[in-house]
Specification:
- The complex is a heterodimer.
- In chain A, about 45% of the residues lie in helices and about 25% in strands.
- Chain A is α+β, with helices and mostly antiparallel strands.
- Chain A folds into five domains: about 130 residues, Four Helix Bundle (Hemerythrin (Met), subunit A), CATH 1.20.120; about 130 residues, Histidine kinase CheA-like, P2 response regulator-binding domain (Alpha-Beta Plaits, 2-Layer Sandwich); about 55 residues; about 140 residues, Histidine kinase-like ATPase, C-terminal domain (Heat Shock Protein 90, 2-Layer Sandwich); about 130 residues, CheA-289, Domain 4 (OB fold (Dihydrolipoamide Acetyltransferase, E2P), Beta Barrel).
- In chain A, helix 4 packs antiparallel against helix 5 and helix 15 packs parallel to helix 16.
- Chain A is elongated and about 105 Å long.
- By secondary structure, chain B is α/β, with parallel strands linked by helices.
- Chain B contains five helices and five strands.
- Chain B has a five-stranded parallel beta sheet, with helices on both faces.
- The chains are: A alpha+beta, B alpha/beta.
Chain lengths: ~650, ~120
């Protein structure tokens, strides 16, 4: 395969992958709200585009699956079939097949082809029950289009003036319903008790003469908002398979959104916006982006040197340097922004995951997401997925109770998981919260003692938060049953470790039989961090700010010896002291005890310690450079940075440093 | 709660038997059988059943008139019309008279039980 061909495939896969995510999202929305026409239209658009792309590439299998999906979506759009669970299952199945086919689009496995074939049959079955004609009385009629004449429009206008609400009620009858006209009559009679019937599609005459397949629509002017009661009442009419209603305005908005340009006043909205967005985007290889950011970083460092050397020679040069500095600062900010992506990228996979897991566990769980547009560094986003998957799985598996249990507790039968992201200062905060059983501190304590994580004596002294924090200890799994979903005992400690590796922190709150909430705090970017420069063993070292709790000046008299350790009692808390240079294994010439010395109090993995240094230099933003392959994994060192004066400085990794 | 009681009204013994079989198999108790509209009204007043299945075309008094009378006597009566094909207008009349649902003959057993379940729930 030549280079260019591979490039095409890469772009195809990347773009098709995104489309599949959109498709998944639309399908989930549709499952939740069958009347969501916008999602339906978006799904159709995406599938259509995919088919076109696959056609260009000559991928028969993908074409076949997308063609099937297109059919089913078309029927859904026309209202000929309804988004009931079995229809949605088929759509999801199609998405999964596409996902599989995308891995190796040009190598079509016989098994995949078989699966696609099966799906085609299933879809044909569904669609045919919708469009097949059943006897001469119910021939295939054109799909009813809701077109209002002037009188009907006037009726709507008048109804609106009277503060009535206009709805479009869509009703699907079962395919083999006898005397459909009478069923339609029953539906209309039921609707009349809710408001005035403005129009029907097909016309009332056609309904009466059974000149329709199984689907019809009714425009209803209602005195008050239609609740769920009407749907139930309609579904209770024999042979009514599905009934839904959409406010007139929503329907109109959705219609104008799919026809950009049809109405000049609406050109900015909906579909037109989507189109514009696509055209403004350019796909760039991430490696190129990283390289750009690195080069800019070096330029920033060089700028400082140039400023130092060049300043004061001539007014013109000073002026130019000033301009250059400004441009480089802007360039730096812009290039950093290039690395930022919305957290949506990670969040997008969760609705589907929650659906699948909760189904397999026989629980009802609703996932609510907020702040998915919150941006953070791409490199962090990628590494957040696993910990979040774990937290969400845990929430479904251990948090949300089975339906019957929830009901007994007086909770909503459906559990809710709230996933939210927001910015807080220079951090991004992500919360995973469930309204499930909460965590029983006694159970945790017992488990921790059983597994030897903590001694019974130590456990007795623990209260509240201290107990909850035990779940981050390694080897502690709180589920009594090991499931395939979670609870394999490699749980929360792994999550905590990976969050801390991202210079972040994780906290837990829980109220028994009410809720559990995990709060993750992460820096917006890993490339530039705020650090404290200190001097130790005559070297300048940078300590990342997130790990630092405070800086104190201690006098030798405050330092006590407990066993072999030096400790200090800081406002009632006993903290171990270590000489930073010794922890790093630097030659330590200076053993004299000065009258007062600075100590940096750091915290990592729930442990606090005091690092004795020679001098505190000050706070500075630094750009992290990796030490390269050979020096990777040095204990206590996270990387290096170049300071303004060109000196290379090591960055201390507090997590791995502490003994 | 005990079994739901049903009054079956139809002018053919075959239809009455078929309905009775289906209903009893599905946990209903058929407490009366009427051959025409007049009998239907009499039996309803006498037995006060929870459900009625009503044929439309019957001698002496048709099903629609019978429904009207029964509803006059008991506005909450739950009546299901069992009609032959092609009786669209009559079914609509029956619904207007106060029938809650209808089943078209010939029917599959589950159609009738489904209808009964729906009307007794709603």
């Amino acid at each position: 395969m030549d280079r260019q061909e591979q490039e095409y495939i890469d772009i195809f896969q990347a773009e098709a992958g995104e489309y599949l995510q959109i498709l998944n999202r639309c399908a989930l929305r549709l499952e939740e709200k069958p009347t969501d026409r916008e999602s339906l239209q978006e799904a159709f658009r995406v599938v259509h585009s995919l088919k076109g792309m696959a056609g260009t590439m000559g991928y028969q299998n993908i074409m076949k699956i997308t063609h099937c999906l297109e059919n089913i979506l078309e029927e859904l759009q026309a209202g000929a079939i309804v988004p009931n669970p079995s229809t949605m299952d088929i759509i999801f199945e199609g998405v999964d097949l596409l996902q599989g086919a995308l891995q190796n689009p040009d190598q079509e496995e016989p098994r995949e082809l078989e699966q696609a074939e099966e799906l085609t049959l299933k879809i044909k079955e569904i669609c045919s029950t919708a469009t097949d004609d059943h006897g001469p009385a119910s021939g295939p009629f054109p799909r009813p289009l809701l077109r209002l004449d002037e009188t009907e429009k006037e009726t709507i206008r008048l109804a609106k003036e009277k503060d009535q609400l206009i709805y479009v009620v869509a009703v699907t009858l079962k395919p083999h319903a006898p005397l459909k006209s009478v069923r339609a009559y029953m539906v209309l009679r039921c609707l009349e008790s809710y408001g005035e019937i403005v129009a029907t599609a097909p016309s009332e005459q056609d309904l009466e003469d059974e000149n329709f397949n199984h689907f019809f629509q009714v425009v209803l002017a209602a005195g008050q908002p239609l609740g769920l009661g009407l749907r139930e009442e309609l579904l209770n009419i024999t042979d009514v398979e599905e009934a839904s209603y959409t406010p007139w305005e929503e329907l109109k908005a959705a219609e104008t959104a799919v026809k950009p340009g049809s109405d000049p006043a609406n050109r900015e909205g909906g579909g037109a916006f989507h189109q514009g967005l696509v055209e403004k985007m350019v796909r760039v290889e991430t490696a190129k982006l990283d390289q750009l950011v690195n080069l800019v970083g070096e330029m920033v460092v060089a700028r400082t040197r140039v400023l130092e050397l060049g300043r004061g020679h001539s007014e013109e040069l000073d002026h130019l340097l000033e301009q250059l500095t400004q441009s480089i600062t802007n360039l730096q900010e812009t290039s950093m922004k290039l690395r930022m992506v919305p957290i949506k990228q990670v969040f997008d996979r969760f609705p589907r995951m929650v659906r699948d897991i909760s189904r397999s566990r026989g629980k009802r769980v609703r996932l609510q997401i907020t702040g998915e547009q919150t941006e953070l560094d791409r490199s962090i986003v990628n590494r957040l997925a696993d910990p979040l998957v774990h937290l969400i799985r845990n929430a479904i598996d251990h948090g949300i109770e089975p339906e019957t249990e929830r009901e007994a507790r007086g909770k909503n039968r459906e559990g809710t998981i709230l996933l939210q992201a927001f910015h807080e200062g220079n951090n991004i905060v992500i919360q995973v919260e469930d309204d499930g059983a909460g965590i029983d501190p006694e159970v945790i304590k017992r488990k921790a003692i059983d597994k030897g994580v903590i001694s019974p004596e130590a456990a007795a002294g623990l209260t509240g938060q201290g107990v909850l924090n035990l779940i981050f200890a390694s080897g502690l799994s709180t589920s009594s049953a090991v499931t395939d979903v979670s609870g394999r005992g490699v749980g929360m400690d792994a999550v905590k470790t990976s969050i801390e590796a991202l210079h972040g922190s994780i906290q837990i709150e829980s109220r028994l039989s009410e809720m559990t909430r995990f709060t993750l705090r992460l820096p917006l970017t890993l490339a530039i961090i705020n650090s404290l420069l200190v001097k130790s063993a005559r070297q300048v070292l940078a300590i990342p700010i997130e790990g630092i709790r405070e800086n104190v000046m201690l006098e030798p008299s405050q330092v006590k010896s407990v066993q072999e350790n030096k400790v200090v009692n800081l406002r009632g808390e006993v903290i171990c002291l270590h000489r930073l240079s010794r922890l790093l294994g630097f030659p330590d010439h200076d053993n004299s005890e000065p009258s007062a010395f600075p100590v940096v109090i750091v915290e990592a993995g729930g442990k606090k310690a005091g690092l004795i240094v020679e001098e505190l230099i000050g706070q500075q933003e630094i750009m992290i450079k990796s030490l390269g392959h050979y020096l990777k994994g040095l204990k206590g060192i996270a990387g290096a940075t170049i300071l303004g004066d060109g000196r290379v400085t090591l960055i201390v990794d507090v997590v791995s440093l502490l003994p | 709660m005990g079994k739901k009681t049903v009054l079956v009204v139809d002018d053919t013994a075959f239809m009455r038997m078929t309905l009775k079989n289906i209903l009893e198999k599905n946990g209903y108790s058929v407490i009366g059988e009427g051959e025409d509209g007049l009998q239907a009204i009499e039996l309803y007043k006498e037995l006060n059943p929870s459900l009625v299945t009503m044929d439309i075309t019957m001698p002496n008094l048709d099903g629609i008139k019978a429904i009207e009378e029964i509803i006059k006597h008991d506005a909450g009566a739950v009546i299901i019309v069992v009609s032959a094909m092609g009786q669209k207008a009559l079914v609509i009349d029956a619904l207007n008279a106060g029938a809650k649902d209808f089943v078209v003959k010939p029917f599959q057993p589950e159609r009738i039980t489904e209808a009964l379940q729906k009307v007794s729930r709603g």
